[in-house]
Amino acid sequence: MSTTTTPQIVYVVDDDQGMLDSLVWLLDSVGIETRPFTSGQSFLEQCDASINACVLLDIRMPGMGGLNVLEAMRQRQVQLPVIFISGHADVPLAVRAFKAGACDFLEKPINEQLLLDSVQQALQSHAAQWQRRQQLASIQARLADMTPRESDLLLPLAKGFSNREIAEQLDISVKTVDLYRARVMKKLAADSLPELVAMVIATGMLDPLAARE
Question: What is d(CA 43, CA 70) in angstroms, rounded to the nearest whole number?
Answer without folding.
Answer: 11
